[in-house]
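subagent[fold] <- orchestrator: predict structure for attached chain, return tokens only, no commentary.
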Amino acid sequence: MDYYCSSKFTDLQVHVQGKLLYNCCNALPERIDLDWLESNPGKLFHTNTMIDDRKLMLDNKSCESCHFGCYRYEEKGLSSKRLEIRNHKHIDDPMAPLKNLSISLATDCNLTCMYCDPEFSSSWYRDIEKNGEHKLDGITIKNDNWSKLWSKMKQNLRSDETRFFNLLVNEIAMADHIEELSFLGGEPLLHNGLEKIVDSLDNKKITIVSGLGVSDSRLINFLKKFRDRKITFVVSGESTGKFFELLRFGISWKEFQDRIKVIEDHGFEIELTSAMSNISTLDFINFFETFQDRYFIRTNSLTQRPFLMPHVLDDDSKEVFMRHADLYPNVRQIQELKKSIEMTPSGTDRSNLGRYLKEFSARRSIDLEFLPKSFRDWVGIDR
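subagent[fold] -> orchestrator:
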């Protein structure tokens, strides 16, 4: 097996609220010692752990952080983020300069997207606190100790005055080779520190990844303030109508479309990012046909929730998708999804999917009658 991935050398995700580094975004996180960082300015993007992992990769050996995020899925014949983004450029310097930095400011989020969890959404934390854990076969979705800590922290205590936030701003200022900064969440537009850090990035390409779960007034105020800056909004979505509202609970399909138009009307560039699950597979082509002429659509596969992966789908629904996919032989996103659903799902994933859908929809009073009957029967929703 070839363990190399150039993203390990060029990309990094920082979780400000948890003081965590993910190298790359799918890897196990490393917690930052702020005393160490203050004593070692300019080293945030080249910690000892990062350097050791890169050396292992150059020796074509597995490192624990990447086994968690990619290798363990590839060993089962499944897709992974590494395989989807792999490029042929080979970097052999463990101290290579960082190119792409993603910053997750906080877990504040008004949505409980079906594939998310308390690590990245405060709404998910509140749901688990109120309704209890999702206990499936081999998987438990719960509030662990550090997400409990975060939920109790007030926004002003996690604002631009926090120690790590200010250290991070300084680290970015010293990192001349960074080409692009992406802001993630939770929902980045809800964080009070976003404007300050954007203000400090005069010569960097800026991307904001948003589910648009914000008020119209807050969105418009941000757009007006930065209307002269080159900012790309990468908006999350992968389905339409009731499918969308199930997958991204907390925002309506109409609100989503209206807010995209507001961003476009203010002159900002828009891309779409689609998390490919079995539920989104049922409606992704409708989503693609709605937006293909207006925006670039990037796709990524789900791995953290095996029972939501695209291949965990009944044969009739797969056949319907295949027929529609054949109409788009040259569309990479659709053909990749077509290939990913060819695998046979395990009985455990099928059972977990049914249990999860029942619990998720019951907690939110969602009627699942709009899902295809063959799919509902297959996972036992109606029983």
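orchestrator: received. Logging for downstream: Residues 347-363 form the longest helix (17 residues). Residues 102-379 form a domain with the TIM Barrel fold (CATH 3.20.20).
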